[in-house]
Design a protein that fits this description.
This protein is mostly beta strands. It folds into two domains: about 60 residues, no CATH class; about 70 residues, no CATH class. It has no helices and twelve strands. The N and C termini lie far apart (about 75 Å).
């Protein structure tokens, strides 16, 4: 059986179809190689060597590579990695080297690679100032012998 005419379509009338191999064209996010007949811009396609893309609504939602999975960046209100029970809670890409965590659509925590001496990579949402503030490190033994206090600015 050969279906290599370059047309898009589906096989109908086969209840027990067995084949040795199946090959697909690469496809694109807008027109994935493996798609659903009721939504042809939703499916799977080849992004590049050893990379598979998942297309939702004609846009790449996820890319599976041999070393990682890349997903949507998201926002504070709609995180790229969220939960079915509450889509406004999860993790999202803030900017280069910055990862945000939101609950109920509000950012509560951020991890930021950019730091200087005496600072941490951690920012917390301060309810009083209604802003993200960087957590700093107190002096040696400020939290008891062998411990430093983590400080949030007033």
């Amino acid at each position: 059986m050969g279906l290599n005419d370059g047309t898009r379509g589906h096989l109908a009338g086969y209840s027990n179809l067995v084949v040795d191999t199946v090959g697909f064209q690469d496809g694109t996010a807008a027109s994935p190689a493996m798609f659903f007949t009721d939504e042809t811009n939703c499916g799977f396609y080849r992004v590049a060597g050893s990379q598979i893309g998942v297309s939702l609504g004609g846009v790449t939602a996820y890319t599976f590579r041999n070393i990682d999975i890349i997903g949507l960046s998201g926002t504070e209100g709609v995180p790229g990695y969220g939960f079915n029970a509450q889509g406004t809670t999860g993790m999202w890409f803030v900017a280069s080297n910055r990862l945000g965590f939101s609950a109920g659509g509000r950012q509560g925590l951020e991890v930021d690679k950019t730091t200087t001496a005496g600072e941490t990579s951690l920012l917390l949402y301060d309810q009083d100032s209604t802003a993200m503030v960087r957590v700093s490190v107190g002096a040696d033994d400020s939290g008891d012998l062998g411990f430093k206090v983590l400080q949030v600015p007033n």
